[in-house]
């Protein structure tokens, strides 16, 4: 059963849930250069030290990516830019990007992924090839995250299995064991806790011990979530949203991730070795709405200094 919450804001349980507060502590959030431009002051929204991923959409100039990284770094936030393999022309381009991020923004961490384009535009087609260049290690990057797919990935496994994804994860696990980089799986978003729990259990059973930073869609209109879920290839969770959309009484009510996160938090409290280490938010309904929800749901644990009185 999917665990979605469409209750009015004043009906939602807030900071009384210690397990939820614990899970939300240290959450990360994702921005793009064009969405970051709309935020006047990130320090008024995010707690000090919040990791901010910068999504690199095909066609975004590297100059815009680096400028956004520099702004966030100057505001005191650890920055984790995306490195989508399929839009990187060659090793020289990759080396240039790494040098720019380091030299202009002090970046020492990255999310490596294949990227959303169907065909490679250069020499790389997957994150493993980026790792194999050794350029991140040579540049002293201390943290490298790679993608995870709790509900599978049809681009990687067109037959609906997870054979290719599983093989790639085993390779990344082995890579983490022979290098000094801190690694984690940053996942696609999902709306149901049960598939996430089952996926994490399966990882452990197969010897994949990389910590999971679980992707969660932030507060948004239901129509917005369905649009993004289709575009991003979200699995069974999409059916849950479509079912909700058939109920006219709920169609216009905002989605909030309270229930799915509460379920994961309670599971984590009962099973401390549960692979989910942190929450990573996709602010599909806006950065401000997501940050404000996290403040209310997590209480002081995630309240930015600028918002404290």
From TrEMBL:
<dbReference type="InterPro" id="IPR029041">
    <property type="entry name" value="FAD-linked_oxidoreductase-like"/>
</dbReference>
<dbReference type="GO" id="GO:0016491">
    <property type="term" value="F:oxidoreductase activity"/>
</dbReference>
<protein>
    <submittedName>
        <fullName>5,10-methylenetetrahydrofolate reductase</fullName>
    </submittedName>
</protein>
<keyword id="KW-0560">Oxidoreductase</keyword>
């Amino acid at each position: 059963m999917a665990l979605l919450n469409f209750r009015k804001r004043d009906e939602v349980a807030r900071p009384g849930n210690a397990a939820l507060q614990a899970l939300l502590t240290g959450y990360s959030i994702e921005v793009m250069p064009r969405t970051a431009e709309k935020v006047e002051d990130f320090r008024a929204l995010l707690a000090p030290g919040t990791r901010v991923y910068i999504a690199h959409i095909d066609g975004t100039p590297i100059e815009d990516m680096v400028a956004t990284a520099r702004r966030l770094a100057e505001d005191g936030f650890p920055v984790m830019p995306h490195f989508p393999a399929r839009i990187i022309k060659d090793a020289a381009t990759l080396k240039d990007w790494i040098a720019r991020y380091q030299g202009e923004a002090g970046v020492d961490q990255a999310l490596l992924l294949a990227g959303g384009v169907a065909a490679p535009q250069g020499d790389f087609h997957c994150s493993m090839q980026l790792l194999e260049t050794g350029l991140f290690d040579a540049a002293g990057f201390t943290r490298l995250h790679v993608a995870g797919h709790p509900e599978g990935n049809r681009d990687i496994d067109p037959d609906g299995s997870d054979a290719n994804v599983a093989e790639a994860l085993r390779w990344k696990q082995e890579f983490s064991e022979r290098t000094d980089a801190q690694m984690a799986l940053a996942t696609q978003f999902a709306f149901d806790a049960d598939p996430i729990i089952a996926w994490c259990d399966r990882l452990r059973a197969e010897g994949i011990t990389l910590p999971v930073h679980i992707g969660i869609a932030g507060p948004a209109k239901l129509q917005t979530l369905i649009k993004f879920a289709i575009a991003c290839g979200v699995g069974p969770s999409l059916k849950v949203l479509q079912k909700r959309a058939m109920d006219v009484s709920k169609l216009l009510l905002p989605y909030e991730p309270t229930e799915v996160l509460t379920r994961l938090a309670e599971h984590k409290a009962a099973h401390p070795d549960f692979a989910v280490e942190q929450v990573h938010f996709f602010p599909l309904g806006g950065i401000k709405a997501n940050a404000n929800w996290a403040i209310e749901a997590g209480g002081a644990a995630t309240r930015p200094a600028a918002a404290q009185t």
